[in-house]
Give the backbone structure.
Amino acid sequence: MSEAQIKSLEEEFEARIARNEKIEPKDWMPEKYRKTHIRQMSQHAHSEIVGMLPEGNWITRAPSLRRKVALLAKVQDEAGHGLYLYSATETLGVSRDELFEQLHTGKAKYSSIFNYPTVTWADMGAIGWLVDGAAIINQVPLCGASYGPYARAMVRVCKEESFHQRQGYELILTLAKGTPEQKEMAQDALNRFWWPALMMFGPRDDDSPNTEQSMKWKLKRKTNDELRQQFIDQTVPQAELIGLTIPDPDLKWNEDKGGYDSGKINWDEFWQVVKGHGPCNKKRMNTRVAAWENGQWVRDAAIAHREKQEQRKMNKTA
Amino acid sequence: MNNNLYNYILGIADNSLILGQRLGELCGHGPSLETDIACTNISLDLFGQVRSYFQYAAQIANDGRSEDTIAMLRTERQYVNVLLVEQPNVDFAYTITRQFLFDVYHYKFLVQLQKSNDATLAAIAKKSIKEVSYHLRFSSDWIKRLGDGTEDSHNRIQNAVNDLWAYTDELFHQTPADKTMIAEGIGVDTLKFKDNYFKEATEVLIEATLVVPDLEYFQKGGKEGVHTEHLGYLLAEMQYMQRTYPNMKW
């Protein structure tokens, strides 16, 4: 293909996106578009799978049968999200095994929030309320992403995430209205998860070099700081409503901007966790790798069985 | 309160409770996403059944007990599940074998429980049997897959069968509460399908190219509350919150 031809394809491609048309797997797309999407979509899929671990940590210890069932269902939903996000990523010409390989070798990233430990039952509420709450704000705009399979996956993911968020808030609310011990547990969870939840929106706009290209491709519809502000404005009243205190002494309503001013995020901590040195980075990865390696013989057996079945079928028809 | 009915319900529900708990341990650690989702799903079904049974038991007791206190505030000797379901998740072969040996029983049990004179138990059975027929298909398929798959998977599943087979006989032991409930047309006479259980389990194992153990001695005790050493740890974890923070709403 000549350079002129490629340029004309690229122009037509950008025009389609500008017209809000969806790009489908068999359509022509620039290599950079494909790679960027593989990176973001698989990162999202990995986050779902690694995200199962901090919550899975409390399944065996859930305080009531009702909560245990809800938690199991929630973690199962996350596995489901992982499954269809991996499938959507596979439409870009990469296999699930390759994506796992990237995760296990540390080449691919996942959301840093899952590198924090879940030390009390209240953390199940904080994750639902804050982490899923932040995830929804990040993800709702993606329902309008230009890549069709991703946009469609996000519609379903967002519906379930919004259910999880309400469930998490209800869990925290129950604790906040409970005994002093329970209320303390809820406040402690909020104290520990508030700042990491704010970090989920990524670096400040000034430090986020990929934003412009991603906005053009509708892989991102708002900047990190805009989304973070939206989350703060949405969450502060929710905390007040149930009598919990946001752990930010600088938090103050700003009448002029119609939003809250908030304190400074500890970016050193952000980069520490992103670079692999958070409290649970190693543990999470070891757990995922162990599950994968311990399961190798099972996956091998399934393949061997299928091949034998096919062979037997062929022998029969021959 | 009708003690026999109460104890009979515990005898059914404790199996689902303990097996559900074991499967819950695996969530996020499965050999593939699909098997992970399936095992979690089975756990979810079992806990759903447990809730129905214990809510009914709490209603019968009518003394302030709840589904949660029944599930989590008994002592080890008061749990009456069979030993099979408390066996640990040694590896996927053990998990599948434990599931399979229980599912064959569970399905046949629920078929009969649907005909119980007790309308609530019959209704729970009717709802659960759809779920359990799926569990049985899942575990049977994996028995065959692992038996037929590779030499390694064959050996692993054979080992698991050899170890867990000793716990099958107890499925058919009957406590005094069981016998009373059978006489009243409420309980299921499990002895009536014992032969069929071994016949069907054997058929699947043979199809999976496995050897059916020929044992002289079997293990028992769970139904009388005498468990393997594994159960205490499982309960310590399961009961942690209820024990540490008594009388609270969650």
